């Protein structure tokens, strides 16, 4: 168990007990990854890194040695989909079926919602909800992902298409609800982390990464090429 | 024959020495060597015939006895064969389950293509296949063969007339078959039971065996006693219970027969024996290897029960055990045993009593696994009437599940259900949840300090329907920190909430003026959990960080009673904190779940603690009382849920249900208000429903 003896002999229990204040939620001492013996160790570790500093994307995406890469990618994607709920909640207030009748980013493409038996032209907000719900079902499916400690290759292959679909939520927000996107991005760095993640693990082609988020960051440092 | 027999004796003595002809009796005596005479010969023949007749009749008797013995042995053999068949069937089912698991594993390892090829080999003969198709059919088959066998046995026994010895023989044999196996299994389990508490369990197991008898005696004083209810009420409750639960127990019938065979002269052991036999049956019934592994683990844990009861007893100190209540317990159990042992009883009544006795011990098995949340499931609540539930998670969402809409994919004891609707509005983890008495609304409290009131969508909607903003009915703003507890009062459509902002608030969520009042207890700090006092609708109770609970009058807003814990030296309050408070649906009783592994019971009128027990191996996080007020369900960070009989505070069943994330495991438990479902919510992101 992830207990740690403190100097005074008492044990740290990493729990959010009822009555915990919001500011103290999950505010416990970090636990080294090697000492996590739970089947959910990778999730615990990723969340711990994010809580410590959501801006330190390199550290968050740095896979521990001897970690199974499939599980690492899978747990990160779970975390992305979970945090995307936050963006979806914000979009619900502004992205209405009357105004955003289709899922678009730039005018180039209309995305069809793949959650239905035959892909449908869902309004953007429904596309968002359906895609997140579908991702939740797929990533929790007993058929494809029965275990969280080892994942077969054929299932790892499914992660790419989930990435492509959920990325459209970022791009719709960026191109159509910019203030929501900026507010959310400032708080979470989620789109930036996601972009770096899919680039690092080759889960999406560069052409599809249409939110200009890494360039923005890089421009001041590097000479414009 | 009288005369003849007299003569026979004489003749018998005399005859061999020489047959006399023409002599009478007197002559015989006077003259032993007298001549043969016709009457003498006739007499001798007569006598010999009579002797043979006697011997023949003796042999007849012997033969009858032997036949009876054979009949009995045959009957016994038949019974044993039935038992054997039953066990073989179960072994086959286990093998099948194992094959399935292997196939599953294989499939997962090498990809979906191999599925068909792999799924075929494990398909055994049609009979076992059909049994697997439906538990019901399996049960009825085994049940009817059992009934036949028992009927036969009973007939034989009646013929023979001697019952007691046979029962002894029979029960010892059956015990040799079941009991000894059980013991072996236990020992093996103990040896194999590595992991966190193997040593502890071993120690406990051995202690338990030594102390079995006292353990039974050490049943803690009952709720009824504590509440000063009179005997009659308790007896009535018992009777009512027996008749009520009868109905749901149909599917456990086949277990009764096994339990039936328990010996009557070891009533102290019966409680244990019964449970063990039942556990064995469970092994057979569950087709899911996981479930079986869990059961084995549970059984291992169960061994520590008795020892805990000892602890409770000592903790109880001088508190007298109500004689009446103990009688209740014993008589109800004892009656069951006796009824089963009285072979001449009418068959039906035997079965009835047996099944109601089993009702005492309905075994819950995991049936549905609800997987769709990305993070810990903090709370769950059942719809009042439909097989529908809602879960609330740290992934910021709530999800609606219809247990009748399962994924028809795989043949497995545990069914997957996909959520019908995802509620999104909280901007942080959702911590608590309540459903209104009509099932139309649900309320969720979050780390964001907001309480959302939702219109529950129809339980037959398409999961990928269009977004309807009016599903979110209202937000209740008022708390300035995380909302950790919610409770509804159906009669008035009131909602009660508690928050880390130190307040408890009463709401009328569907009225114009939503916030009714705010309750604060400055001396006690932050409330951790709240509930309505169910037997007095204008009272509420809240548990606080101070380890005290306060009962408020909702009309005056004043505290009317305090349930105060005595401070323990050297233990900080976090280590003993109250994680959950619930009120009994009908009695003036409050139950609290503590971080220090205890469940404590309080009298609302006196404010005194009436009972305290170590209930789990780790912090107790959650409690639920069944709608009839007979059972208590508890969940703990020790990964298990436990079902308690409220009357005598004994653990009826333990199920290992969830895995740990950090140091958290089970976060909520619930009873369905009107259907036989229980559920648990875990830090592993899963919710499980048991039937
Ligand atoms: Zn939009
Ligand atoms: Zn759609």
Automatic annotation (TrEMBL), chain A:
GO terms for molecular function: metal ion binding. Keywords: Metal-binding, Zinc. Transmembrane segments: none annotated. Zn(2+) binds at residues 95, 100, 172, 177. Pfam families: Mob1_phocein. The keyword Metal-binding applies. PANTHER family: MPS ONE BINDER KINASE ACTIVATOR-LIKE MOB. Belongs to the MOB1/phocein family. This is MOB kinase activator-like 4.
TrEMBL record, chain B:
GO terms for molecular function: calmodulin binding. The keyword Calcium does not apply. WD repeats lie at residues 370-411, 423-456, 476-507, 571-612, 613-654. Keywords: Calmodulin-binding, Coiled coil, Cytoplasm, Phosphoprotein, Repeat, WD repeat. This is Striatin N-terminal domain-containing protein. Residues 38-167 form the Striatin N-terminal domain. Pfam families: Striatin, WD40. Signal peptide: none annotated. It is found in: Cytoplasm. Gene3D superfamilies: 1.20.5.300, YVTN repeat-like/Quinoprotein amine dehydrogenase. Residues 1-33, 183-222, 246-266 are annotated as: Disordered. Belongs to the WD repeat striatin family. Residues 247-266 have a biased composition (Acidic residues).
